[in-house]
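Incident log, structure service

09:12 report received: a user says their structure output differs between two submissions of the same chain.
09:20 pulled the input from the user's history:
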Amino acid sequence: MNVPILSQAPRIVVLGSLNMDLVLRVPHMPRAGETMLGQSLSQVPGGKGGNQAVSCARQGAAVSLLSCVGEDAYADQLLAGLVADHIDVQHVQRSARDATGVAVISVDDSAQNQIVVVPGANLRLQVTEQVLRPLLQDADYVVLQFETPLEEVDQALRSARAEGCKTVLNPSPVQPLPDAWWPRIDVLVVNEAEAAQLSGSPVDSPESAARAARWLQAKGVGQVVVTLGSQGAVCCDQAADGAEAAAHWHRAPQVQAVDTTAAGDTFLGALTVQLAAGAHLDEATQWAIRAAAICVTRAGAQPSIPFHAEVATRTEASPWSPV
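09:34 re-ran on a clean worker, output below:
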């Protein structure tokens, strides 16, 4: 796999959520009305914004994070962890009105998870052009998701276009996108459920993922990646005028999964850094799959996210095929 060596750190701005994850290990997901004995309870730094920022940083990027936390112990723990990963947190705001966001995550013996998020201070995040535009002037990409107010995502998309900074959007939790947003998105990263809801068509195979990716790209998006869990991912690159966009299915290596929490965030961070370093979309997708494959073999959100050197040591074949 011909992946660029990072001669200098790509610059990534992440606008997103910070949560403290309360992780419950359970034998299986409880049914309605069922009481069960859990196996353990742990506190783990998380939130999609925090996870994606950590993934970008551990892949070698210089990262600035825009987020909002409360004035509580969870906030102090989250910020300390980000600083340990050399992430710029000077633009993380503090809310005196709301507690830091919390996510309650149940992980069963098959490594699947269910997540309930209480956003808390994340919904208080407010960014201005005066803050955003100087950051985006020097950035290669800005990374966005939907665990913060959509007004702030809109502001970031508009500011990024004005400053010539490329955008990566992970529309999670998924909801319809305004028509004006589509052409402002350089890279759209979605899982099966998100791709299905946005495209209006079921996504349960690489073939259906490719159809959804082409539909999404036709809305004006530059590049689309649909992640398929243990099946890998389908990426759809920009096509020449009048030609059908080329979609490729990249398979994932077989691993013994322990916890799938943060796998998607790990994938997105690794993908973004490789694109910023000049990798082709196919190469970046293969690299991101390997990073996510390492992540799922470990417990917790941010503790499970691998470093660049760890991904570089993986030597599994990365078969792919057009779809």
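09:41 both user submissions now match this output. Likely a transient worker issue. Closing.
09:42 reviewer note: The first strand starts at residue 11 and ends at 15. The mean pLDDT is 94.
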